Amino acid sequence: MNKKEMTRFDWHIDIKISLAMGGCLLIATAIPEFQIMTACIATLLCVQNGVKESGKSGLIRIIITAIGGLIAILVVLADNRIGNQWIFIVMIVLGVLVTLFGCKVARVPSFNARIGGVTFILVVLTKTGPDRISYALFRLLSTLYGVIVVVFVSMIFAAFSKKEAPAPENESVIQNKIEP
Description:
This protein is mostly helical. The protein has six helices and no strands.
């Protein structure tokens, strides 16, 4: 790919990201329960060259968010019952480990497993008490919402482009293949 083609390629992705982000911001503003930041992060991480690639990346994002959120909910439920700061710290350490392991079992790429760990940490440490459970659920719904917007924007771009060529693997923003 020459420099001119690369410049066109970069702008294509940037415009898709910006439009998807704008869609998330506009619609999520009307629905206060949605976590706008979470939906926007999903758009940044999931937009790829084509519809199929964006869909795969979005699916991985939903899987890692669900795993991190589920493990976090289990830790939160235990913390709400036990209420000991030292045990909570041990549960966080073990929760990160279980989240990373769960993502590997789900065969997501290693870097993406770390994002599952980020979800876990955000859920257990951002809020307090039972608010953490609703935070986890709305985080998953907001991620799903962001992914839907990404796929929709990608489909619009595909419909208006004469030929949508799949991206070579080394040019994807995030590796979007599930590892064997």
